[in-house]
């Protein structure tokens, strides 16, 4: 543990107590030599490093963007989803933290073992349902009185959204999320032991005028086979290996064949509208370039090279002399 830094007031109070005899310096030395014991709560065992938690957060930031796009197209209303927090807590604490009656979707994620849970605030779930049925998307909490049709419609929507979870996790592992259960009472949901460590990803969600949270609970047993892949070292190692060489070669070839416009600029000048209207045959327009100055070769209207004019095989041509480098003129 790092040493604590005392404020000036605390230092003054400590010196005063030592001077007055209220504290014994020898006793303080004795206490300092004794072995310090830090309380460790086995119920809140931290089984994921900060690095691994950051990787999970990064995956679900991508998932939040994908889910936002999917629901926006599906519900045709304003959608905004973002990662609020990523925490590791005991499963029992997660169950206690969610409402007594809520929307719970349980997914299997083959080939990984175990299941994960997506808890959706009823306001958000009913806003989705309302938009699906052509309503304005107002939130309503009547989770205790779900009809069979409402249950089927919600299940279908969350089942289709599971494809975005698969896409978000593709950079780490290929999973096949399948919606197995649709539940409203968390007391009936016992996936792992109460003290099992789970990662809870909380998503701030806005659908139309309704706001709420979507919580994704991922037990340790699900992530255990891929823990080594949740490190920055793994991401750095695989970033170059994941490149599709065939697609890269095809993209390079297509870029090389792209047409660009080359334009040799003889010079430029400014004239007034009146002068332009009075131009006649054989009039001479004075440019800002001298006859000894090189021309500028522009690529898609961007100056790139200095060139000199000439002919090549009886055709007007230019020869590249040097690269064009912009010079920022100073102001006096």
Describe the structure in brief.
By secondary structure, the protein is α+β, with helices and mostly antiparallel strands.
Kindly identify the CATH topology of the largest domain. Chemotaxis protein chec
Count of β-strands? 10
Top-tier CATH class of the largest domain: Alpha Beta
Read across the widest sheet, the strand sequence of neighbours is 1-5-6-3-2-4
Please, what is the average pLDDT?
80
What is the terminal separation in angstroms? 57 Å
CATH superfamily descriptor of the largest domain:
CheC-like
Tally the helices: 10
Give the number of domains: 2
User: Fraction of residues in helices?
Assistant: 25-40%
Instruction: Provide the gyration radius in Å.
Output: 34 Å
- Residue ranges: pLDDT <50 for 5 or more in a row? 328-332
Biggest sheet statistics? 6 strands, antiparallel
Overall geometry? extended
Beta percentage is: 25-35%
Backbone structural class: alpha+beta
Per CATH, which architecture of the largest domain? 3-Layer(aba) Sandwich
Q: SSE order, as H and E?
A: HHHEHEEHHEEEHHHEHEEE
Task: Name its key features.
single chain; alpha+beta; 4-stranded antiparallel sheet; 332 residues; cilium; Surface presentation of antigens (SPOA); disordered C terminus; Chemotaxis protein chec; 35% helix; 2 domains
Polypeptide structure, described:
With 332 residues, the protein is an alpha+beta fold. The protein folds into two domains: 44-243, Chemotaxis protein chec, CATH 3.40.1550.10; 262-323, SpoA-like (Surface presentation of antigens (SPOA)), CATH 2.30.330. It is built from ten helices and ten strands. It has helices spanning 8-20, 25-33, 50-75, 91-97, 122-132, 148-169, 220-223, 232-239, 245-256, 273-277; strands at residues 79-90, 103-110, 115-120, 176-183, 197-207, 210-219, 262-265, 295-299, 302-312, 315-323. It has a six-stranded antiparallel β-sheet. A four-stranded antiparallel β-sheet has the order 7-8-9-10, with no helix packed on it. Strand 8 (295-299) and strand 9 (302-312) form a beta hairpin. The model is unreliable at 328-332 (pLDDT under 50). It is found in: Bacterial flagellum basal body; Cell membrane.
């Amino acid at each position: 543990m790092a040493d604590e830094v005392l404020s000036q007031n605390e230092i003054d109070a400590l010196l005063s107590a030592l001077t007055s005899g209220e504290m014994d310096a020898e006793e303080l030395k004795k206490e300092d030599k004794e072995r310090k014991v830090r309380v460790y709560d086995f119920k809140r065992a931290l089984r994921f490093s900060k690095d691994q938690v950051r990787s999970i957060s990064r995956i679900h930031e991508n998932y939040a963007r994908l889910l936002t796009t999917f629901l926006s197209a599906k519900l045709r209303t304003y959608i905004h989803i973002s990662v609020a927090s990523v925490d590791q807590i005991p499963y029992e604490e997660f169950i206690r933290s969610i409402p007594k009656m809520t929307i719970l979707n349980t997914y299997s994620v083959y080939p990984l073992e175990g299941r994960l849970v997506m808890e959706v605030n009823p306001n958000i779930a009913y806003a989705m349902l309302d938009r699906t049925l052509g309503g304005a998307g107002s939130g309503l909490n009547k989770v205790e009185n779900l009809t069979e049709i409402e249950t089927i419609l919600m299940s279908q929507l969350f089942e289709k959204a599971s494809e975005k979870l698969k896409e978000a996790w593709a950079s780490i592992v290929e999973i096949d999320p399948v919606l197995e259960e649709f539940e409203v009472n968390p007391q009936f949901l016992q996936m792992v032991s109460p003290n099992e460590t789970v990662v809870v990803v909380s998503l701030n969600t806005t659908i139309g005028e309704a706001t709420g949270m979507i919580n994704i609970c991922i037990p340790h047993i699900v992530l255990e086979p891929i823990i080594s892949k949740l490190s920055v070292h793994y991401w750095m190692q695989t970033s170059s290996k994941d490149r599709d060489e065939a697609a890269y070669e095809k993209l390079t070839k297509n870029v090389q064949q792209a047409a660009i416009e080359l334009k040799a600029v003889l010079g430029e000048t400014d004239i007034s509208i009146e002068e332009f209207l009075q131009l006649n045959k054989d009039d001479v327009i004075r440019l800002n370039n001298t006859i000894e100055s090189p021309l500028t070769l522009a690529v898609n209207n961007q100056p790139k090279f200095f060139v000199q004019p000439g002919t090549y095989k009886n055709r007007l041509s230019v020869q590249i002399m040097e690269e064009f480098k912009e010079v920022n003129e100073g102001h006096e």
